[in-house]
Amino acid sequence: MIRNWIPLLCLLVAPATALADKPNLIVIMADDLGYGDVSCNGATSFQTPNIDRLAAQGQRFTSGYCSASTCTPTRYSFLTGTYAFREKGTGIAPPNSPSLIRPGTPTIASVLHNVGYATAVIGKWHLGLGDPKPDWNGDLKPGPLEIGFDHCFLLPTTNDRVPQVYVQDHRVLNLDPADPLWVGDKSPSPDHPTGISHRDTLTMDWSHGHNSTIHNGISRIGFYTGGHAARFRDQDLSDRWVAESKTWITSNQDKPFFLFFASHDLHVPRAVHERFVGTSGLGPRGDAIIELDWCVGELMNTLDELKLAEKTMVVFCSDNGPVLDDGYKDDAIEKLGSHRPAGPYRGGKYNIFEGGTRTPMITRWPGTISVGVSDKMVCTIDLAASFAKLAGATLPSDGCLDSFDLSAAFMGKPDAEGREYLVQQDNGQNGTYGLREGNWKLLRHDVGKTHNTELKLERRKIDQFQLYDLSSDPGERTDVIADNPEIAAQLKKRLASVIER
Ligand code: NG6
Ligand code: CA
C-alpha cells in the first residue's frame, strides 16, 4: 500500500526540490559609478570596505561592462537582453516618458518569473511608466509589473528629474487624492518658484539645467505641483530602499527570488543621508560612494542573517561610467584631488571611450563561485541569458537577442569564455558606437563630436573613426587607425553587422 504511494509522492516533491535548488539572484546596480571609484579597483582616496568584501569573496572583473554610457539604454539592455540601439526612443527618459519596454517583451524578470522566481525591482527605474504617459494619480501601468516583476518600489525617473515620490506597484505611495500630482515640462504658472526665480533659497545650486521646480531645497529638471504627502527627502532614499529590500527578501526567503536593487548613488543631486556627509573627504560625490557601499553591506548582512548567502548569487555593477559636474555645484571637480573615477581609462558618462562603459563588476556566491580576478569580457546585457541558464530557464527565441550565456565566466570557471566582442553605445541612435573585439577598440562618431572626454562636459570635435590597441594603450591615447587599415576594416564590418542585424 505504502509502496503504491511512493511514485505519487515523488511526483509531488520533485518540482519543489527543483525550485529549492535554484539560486537567488541579486543585481545591485550603482548609478554613474566609474571603474576607479571603488577601492578594490584601485581607489585610495577613500575605502569601500563592503564592495571590497564582495570582491574578496567572489570574482572581480577587469573587463566588466555596461552596454551604454547613460542610464536608460543600459537599463533597457540589462532587462531585455537586447541592445537599446535596436529600439527607438530608449535614450535618457524624460519625467513623463511612457513605459519604454512594451508588455510582452521577454525580460530577465519574466524569464525568471516563468520558472517560479519571486521578482522585484527596488530603486531607480528611469524606463518610463504608463502609455502614452504616466497617469500619476491613477494606475501607473504598464511598468515593471507588466514585464515580469511581481513587485516594485521605485523612484520613477532619476532624482534630478521630477517628481520626488515613490511608486509602489501601480500607485504613487501616500498620494492624497485631495492634492493631486501634476507633472509637466512647462511652468504651471508665472509665479511657480523655480531654481531661477528662487535661486538664493537653494541648498544645492545648479550649474547647468536643473533649474525648474524646487523640492527639498534642490531645483530639478521638469515641473510639478501637488502630491505633497507623497514626497520624500533625497537624503532618505538609500535607507528606504534598503529597508524595503530587507522586508521583501525576508518575505520571499522560502522561494527562489530575483531582486534588482537599483541604487541612485552617485547620480546627481548627490544629497546623501546626513550621517554620510563628509565621510569621504571628496565632497558629496565621494560621500555618495560611501553611502552606496553601506547599502551593499546591509544587503550582504541581510543574506547572512537569513542564512541565504550560500544560496544567493550577488552581482554588483554600474549603469554607466563616471562624471564630475553633472549639473549641480557640488564640488565634485574641486575636491577630486588625485582620485581617478574612471581608473586608468579615458572618458566616462556620455561617451564611448572605455571609461564610459567599463565599470565595476563583481559576482559573489560563496561556496559556488571561485575567488579571484577575471579578465574575461562580460557585460550587464549578458545577465539575462546567464541567469536563465543558472535558473534552468530557456530563453524565448524572440527575445534577449544580444545576451550571451556567460554563466561560466560569471562563476569564475577557469576555462570559461568571455565575450568575443561588445558594442558600446552612448545614449540614443546618433551613430556613436564603440566596438571592443579582443584588445582592439574601434570608435565610430557619425556626428563628429564627443562629450566628456576628461570627465568635464565639454564637446569636442572627433574623427569619425579611431582605433586603439588596448593591450598597449588602455587609456586610448594613440589612434593607430592609419597603421592598421585591415583591422579597422574588419572591425567596421563587424560593427555594421551587429548594428544592422
Ligand atoms: C542629462 C542631465 C544630467 C543627467 C543625465 C541622465 C542636464 C544638463 N543634464 O540630460 O544631469 O540627469 O541627463 O543621467 O540636464 S542618467 O545617468 O540617468 O543617464
Ligand atoms: Ca547613470
What is this structure's SSE topology?
Elements: H1 2-21, E1 24-30, H2 49-56, E2 59-61, E3 64-65, H3 71-80, H4 108-113, E4 118-124, E5 151-155, E6 167-168, E7 171-172, E8 182-184, E9 214-215, E10 218-219, E11 223-225, H5 237-251, E12 257-262, H6 284-305, E13 312-318, H7 354-357, E14 362-364, E15 372-374, E16 378-379, H8 383-391, H9 407-410, E17 421-425, E18 432-437, E19 440-445, E20 449-451, E21 459-461, E22 465-469, H10 485-499
Parallel strand pairs: 1-12, 1-13, 2-15, 3-16, 4-5, 4-12
Antiparallel strand pairs: 2-14, 5-6, 6-7, 8-11, 9-10, 13-14, 17-18, 18-19, 19-22, 20-21
Helix pairs in contact: 2-6, 5-6
The structure holds 2-acetamido-2-deoxy-6-O-sulfo-beta-D-galactopyranose (NG6) and calcium ion (CA).
Index terms:
about 500 residues; alpha/beta; four-stranded antiparallel beta sheet; 10 helices; globular; disordered N terminus; binds 2-acetamido-2-deoxy-6-O-sulfo-beta-D-galactopyranose; binds calcium ion
Structural class: alpha/beta
Strand order of the largest sheet: 7-6-5-4-12-1-13-14-2-15
Cα-atom radius of gyration: 22 Å
First CA to last CA: what distance?
A: 61 Å
Query: How many beta-strand segments?
Result: 22
**How large is the share of residues in beta strands?**
15-25%
Low-confidence stretches: 1-16
The distinct ligands, each listed once, are: 2-acetamido-2-deoxy-6-O-sulfo-beta-D-galactopyranose, calcium ion
- Average pLDDT value? 95
In quaternary terms, these chains amount to: single chain
Put simply, the count of helices is: 10
Explain the overall architecture.
The protein is an alpha/beta fold. 23% of the residues lie in helices and 17% in strands. The chain has ten helices and 22 strands. Strands 7-6-5-4-12-1-13-14-2-15 form a ten-stranded mixed sheet. Strands 17-18-19-22 form a four-stranded antiparallel sheet, with helices on one face. It has a two-stranded parallel sheet with strand order 3-16. It is globular and about 65 Å long. The protein starts with a helix and ends with a helix. The model is unreliable at 1-16 (pLDDT under 50). The structure holds 2-acetamido-2-deoxy-6-O-sulfo-beta-D-galactopyranose (NG6) and calcium ion (CA). Residues 31-32, 71, 267, 319-320 line the site of calcium ion.
